[in-house]
Amino acid sequence: MSSPVVKLTGLARSFTQGDVTIEVLRGVDLEIAPGEIVALLGPSGSGKSTMLQAVGLLEGGFSGKIEIAGNDASALDGAARTVLRRDHLGFVYQFHHLLPDFTALENVMMPQLLVGTARPDAAERARALLSALGLEHRLDHRPAKLSGGEQQRVAVARALANKPQLVLADEPTGNLDEKTSDRVLGEFLELVRGQGSAALVATHNEGLAARMDRVVRLHEGRIE
Ligand SMILES: Nc1ncnc2c1ncn2[C@@H]1O[C@H](COP(=O)(O)OP(=O)(O)OP(=O)(O)O)[C@@H](O)[C@H]1O
Ligand SMILES: [Mg+2]
């Protein structure tokens, strides 16, 4: 087997509020192979978002080991983590966090420009991704002029723009109606597979999870 895109060993995180400490993650072990799409299930409050934030190198306060594409993230400083994140990871958040002052096309170009892609190439890739998601007629719309489902598609295109080795998605279609959610997730999975990225996708939806390569469940702070 080729080396995993992500390897978690004994990942732990607790939150202290006043004199109460909640141990949310209590030693999570997980490996994801290149190109593998993994569903992360678990009830509300079980720590899915906390785990995705850890893997995304978005927050500190964790113990245990996080390796991304063979790099031990805990051994890196902030700048090196940013580079690791930029070069290997893509994110889809539950609430899309698009840049409001930029068009759909520009939102998808942005991560590419940040890694030095030439403008025309970035525009072409953004146009291709948005077209694959059925948004070829919405390229010049700002987020506020798009429907929720359309905004979510732009967020999906943005996460995939740099062909990251690993896509992290936190309830990527959580705020859409069931039919739209199924369609956007289907398109998302097809694009992720097509470009050979691996993915870790938090969801409550067993039906959607069944369409991925593997399902893991968070239970009492560990992967079952
Ligand atoms: N910054 C924080 N400070 C204190 N407690 C926190 C913090 N972030 C998360 N928690 C707690 O950690 C637990 C796990 O939260 P998390 O958001 O990871 O759950 P989740 O599985 O993503 O839930 P959901 O399915 O509702 O999104 C919750 O009990 C939450 O209250
Ligand atoms: Mg969550």
Task: Write up what this structure looks like.
The protein is α/β, with parallel strands linked by helices. The protein has a single domain, classed as Rossmann fold (3-Layer(aba) Sandwich), CATH 3.40.50.300. Helices cover 35% and strands 27% of the residues. It is built from 7 helices and 10 strands. Strands 6-7-8-3-9-10 form a 6-stranded mixed sheet. A hairpin with a 2-residue loop joins β4 and β5. α3 crosses α4, α3 packs parallel to α5 and α5 (148-160) runs parallel beside α6. The longest helix is centred in the C-terminal third of the chain and has 18 residues, at 178-195. The mean pLDDT is 92. Residues 48-49, 170 line the site of magnesium ion.
What's the short story on this structure?
By secondary structure, this protein is an alpha/beta fold. The chain has 7 helices and 10 strands.
SSE blueprint and pairings:
Layout (H helix, E strand, L loop, with lengths): L5 E12 L2 E13 L4 E5 L6 H8 L7 E6 L2 E2 L5 H11 E4 L11 H11 L4 H14 L15 H13 L5 E5 L7 H18 L2 E5 L3 H4 L4 E6 L2 E2 L1
Parallel strand pairs: 3-8, 3-9, 6-7, 7-8
Antiparallel strand pairs: 1-2, 1-4, 4-5, 9-10
The protein binds adenosine-5'-triphosphate and magnesium ion.
The site of magnesium ion has 3 residues, from helix 1.
